Amino acid sequence: MWRDDLRERLAAIERQGLYRRRRVMDSPQGVEVVCDGRRRVNFCSNDYLGLANHPEVVAALRRGAERYGAGAGAAHLVCGHSRAHHALEEELAEFTGRERALLFSTGYMANLGVISALAGRGDTVFEDRLNHASLLDGALLSGARLKRYAHADLAALGTALADSPSKTRLIVSDGVFSMDGDLAPLGALAQAAREHGGWLVIDDAHGLGVLGEKGRGSLTRFGLGQDDVPVLVGTLGKAFGTFGAFVAGRSELIEFLIQRARSYIYTTALPPAVAEATRAALRLAWEENWRRERLSRLVHRFRAGAAQLGLCLMTSESPIQPVVLGANEAALDASRALWNAGFLASAIRPPTVPAGTARLRITFTAGHTEAQVDGLLETLGEWLATLGGTSFRAIGGAPPGPDEP
Ligand SMILES: Cc1ncc(COP(=O)(O)O)c(C=O)c1O
């Protein structure tokens, strides 16, 4: 019976400490949320700049709904491409310093669409082992050969590129790694792409809005433009606080994606009102440097406090500050202890992260206070103290990658 089969599979997931349960939110996203009926200080959202519930963004959404209604009604290539989408694309192109930008309905779909449009049978896609699942899935969908190199290992990438007989080679990486928070070696990746005739695709989902001058992202840290990194993917549901994603680059790239990216062509355009809300969020992210400055101060405060506790953190200067605890149960236990003390920080377990590297993925937003950061540290310290002899203090640094799929 198929139901018995599924029950058995679910029980196996539970036994491994990998069962996922959803919490129900009764409040807008923010520093303080109402979650499962309880008020908690949120340390696990991607709303890094605190824009998801900003009054100007919400007002733009409302105005957008009044002008365009609730839904786009069709795909972009049929009759769903509104003035709001078009204006947002132009503003995103200006923000990223690229010729054009193309909206996708989610980051997951952008990555599937881009990789499967640019690569196919006979081509090779080279990916960092810690890349986001959507980048790996895009390569699998494309039918190209997928070669995964050890995290940030440029020598391994160089060897794989030199050995590859493929004419079309895509080198694909997160800009800021989503579960570790560290920056990819972007300058060296661009150099490798130049040397080996590869096309570099960078998904800067966690860098845009947060890093670089005016929040223009990870690439600006390395002075890389659209000819060094031809394909830039950005998401709108993280620092920009809304929903959706985009690809930015030269005009030929965007035109080609319009013709060939199936996850662009065969899906309803995101609601135009969301595009209007994103235009407001983009303006705030662009103009209000204080949000990034504040984030950076909070991150430093947390890292200094964690060092005093003896916790070993990743080499991350982004708002993603993982505390790697190893066993799934340890991460669940720490998350429970934080919850009981008034904090929301969910446990991140495999397959989202490699086996043996379960963690709390602590994230900060511009809206957190120093007192909240100190409270989080105090609770982490108390939790560590309850462990007696066992300690997680030695765990840190880049975890091993998962096995080849
Ligand atoms: C690096 C990276 N790329 C893409 C995505 C997917 O974006 P979206 O949530 O818009 O589908 C995420 C997170 O969800 C991510 O962390």
In short:
The chain has 15 helices and 13 strands. A seven-stranded mixed β-sheet has the order 3-9-8-7-6-4-5, sandwiched between helices. It starts with a helix and ends in a 20-residue tail after the last helix.
CATH H-level superfamily of the largest domain: Type I PLP-dependent aspartate aminotransferase-like (Major domain)
The tally of domains stands at 2
Distance between the termini: 29 Å
Largest sheet, in brief, is:
7 strands, mixed
CATH class of the largest domain: Alpha Beta
- Major sheet strand order: 3-9-8-7-6-4-5
Query: What radius of gyration results from the CA coordinates?
Result: 21 Å
CATH architecture of the largest domain: 3-Layer(aba) Sandwich
CATH topology of the largest domain: Aspartate Aminotransferase, domain 2
| Chain oligomer state | single chain
The total beta strand count reads: 13
Overall mean pLDDT stands at 94
Order of helical and strand elements: HEEHHHEHEHEHEHEHEEHHHHEHEEEH
